[in-house]
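Folds vary. Our protein:
___
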Amino acid sequence: MSKISLRAAFTLAPESPVTAQQVFTDRTTEVGAFDAALDTLGSTLAAAEVSPVTDRAMARKNVLVYYGVGGIGKTTLSEELERRFAGRHQEGRDRERAAIRFDFAESAAFDMESYVLRLRAGLGHLAGNWHAFDVAFSVYWERAHPGEPLDEFISRDSVLRRAARSIGLSEQIASTLTDTFGAALPGAVRAAHVVSGLIYSQARRAIVGHRILKNCELLSDLLDADADIETLSYFPYLLAWDLDRLPPPHPRALVLLDTFEEVTARNTREMEQWLQRSVYLMPNVLFVVTGRNRLDWADLKHTTELDFTGPRRWPLLRAGHTSEEPRQHLVGYLSAADADTYLTSALTREDQPAIPAGIRQRITAASGGLPLYLDLAVTMYLDILARGETPVEENFGQPLPEVAGKILRDLERDERDLLRAAALLDTFNPGMLKAACPHVPDAALARFKGRPFLEFDPDRTWPYSLHTMLRDAIRQADQDLRDSWSPRERAEAASRAGSYLEQAAATAAASGDRSTQVAAVRQAIGLCQLTGQFFGWLPGAAQKLLTCGGWGLLPDLPADGDGPISALVLGLQGARERRSGRLDDAVAVMDTALSRPGLPPGLHRFLLLHRANALRVAGRYAAAADDYQQLWEAPGGFREDAGYWLADYRFLQGRFADALSGLDQLGDVAAELRGEILRLQGHVHRVNALFGQAETHYREACDLARDTGNIAAEGKALTDLIQTLSWSRPGDARELQSRALEINEALHNTVELVKIHAAAAVALTNLGDLAAASTHIDSGLNLAQECGYRGGLVWCEVARALNQFSRGDTTASRDTAARLAAIVSDLQGNRFWSEIVTWWTADHAAQHPASTTRWLDGEDSARTRWLAIPASADQRRV
């Protein structure tokens, strides 16, 4: 209720006898439940012979849930509990406490990397070193974000930035690594900030004998796991393990998850699954969940969507449980007595209630116990006093929509327009409101910022908002006023706000601020859904969001209706389905979106590109090429992407000159796509045995990757270079192998590791070490089978055929050639490799089948060069 105090300070005259108090509506039952939950959890942790952190089969009793309708005061309750925890036993307490808040009304809260780092930053107030977590996270970051400074990532999220800087998060991690590895890892301090040194192998060796880490179960498993979000979602276990090492009393930490209905309302439960893991794996932390719905974790018995379900896991969360804390509580409406107590305390005059009893009775009766209504009534009372008038009973007691209408009427014209604009927006700042209402003077905007019906949260991308119920009521009330906005005026204001969001999204994309990107796109989509229009910049902004990996942060939006904005929402859903591996679903969703009538050209191209991507990944190359061709033939967005993939398709079909010609038509493109173009040009020349030209392209791709700090691209270009040199200069290929392995192993890029094994086998065969080559062939084949990379079988079978041919084992090499022919036929691409192997293994030229490949300088020239490879190897061995 501090908003009331602030409003009173700025609106009432200095000599006014009325003062506002910061009042928390006394919810005795809810607060008592919180205190009991802390005491129970503390007793449980103190009495446990084996910590529940390590005994992962133990039932969890660390979740306190408050649920109820909007406007009932759940967020206010959560904030009060946070204050109580931070100040509990303030006098004489001998241990610090850490409270960490997440509000899922903000898009950035859905970023799992930010979530985990905010947990770590919050706990950083309790201790500087979190050995298990800091070591594992440094290895994760090195693999998942090669070359990206951790501090740069932190700076892009305003909430994470404040949390991290409050304790010096990077410095703490650096200190932990130095303490853990000491002289064994001299680059550790740098690694905490940049995390660009490849530290996995050093870390893996060092933890074996470390006094603390050697006892951390599952640390090794997390170090060896893939560096992805799925793995990261288990890292809270390491925080809990480190927290267990701190001296009692426990619990020392509180995590508050607010607006949790935003998590449970998504189309999939993936985010809820990750969050549930953090709750389950941190049983020494109390989690307070506030939202509109109760948790069903204890009620579910058979589900693949969540890891931990059923009453055995969550005995206190089951329906009907009414005794032990912590448990689930329905936050009800305030009683008439509690509502009157709040109104009595909110405004006082000489320590007596400033609001007369008759007015309080009317407000209480109309509110039905809804705290939001009480808040607005006090606001109205203050505004009447500020105008120098005397509040009377008739001013109060109307239903909420009428209260909203009265708020509108009582404001001056400029502030009424600002409130109407605010009612269109989830969150906003003064600049966004000014963009929506450019005619409003700055003085009116300054006055509006102080209105108590505005909610302010500095941790949000745009800090101001209206309560959802009030937003709806304002729009409903703005129908019959003398100056009500027409649908056209409302749409124009939304369009101007959309232009502001367009610039915000573009600036955020340029700086790498994913949370602002998501917030801008999300708000713009909401504006379109509210006003029935479509912003032409949205497809391009959505594409940037998908490219940078922010697609997972977007909420699941409704795709109601059949207009363009509904088609865009479907397109985003389809793109997510493709990235999640649900390819048939992705294609079906894109088909539905593309069938919507009246699609703007930019949106149609966006949907066409992502349907083509889904078809290509699903192995339906010809259908994908048809979509890419449509994009290429008509001017507009995504043309360069389509041109590249068309060239790649032509390459796979053996139409090499067409592939190069297509690449030549691509003009000024981004560095990442330029690197891919150079590599594809190298591929074309390599399979034509034009190794010098291929080497030139790959080295240029390597230089570009290094210049732009793209270590993943460097790893791929190095692998391609080694594959080329293995045929022409095998000794040089062997010298480059260690660097390529170092990068790709650190990145866990299994596809590139398969290629390196195949290239090493070719190089060793050409150098005469046939036995060592066979070992690499077996390793590459096993790795390709394990990861499902069927394309990798091609490289390994080619290397096997060369090795067998070099041994003089004609029968085996022909068997391999037949196996390779079946593989490329199934893949519907790379047939040229089967033809090359057939050239080696056929008895004489007459047995060579007619080539279906369009070789750059003719079949005879290409065959001559490839037939010279085994002969050159024989000469080297002699």
In short: Residues 732-877 form one domain. The chain has 42 helices and ten strands. Residues 487-511 form the longest helix (25 residues). The chain has a mean pLDDT of 84.
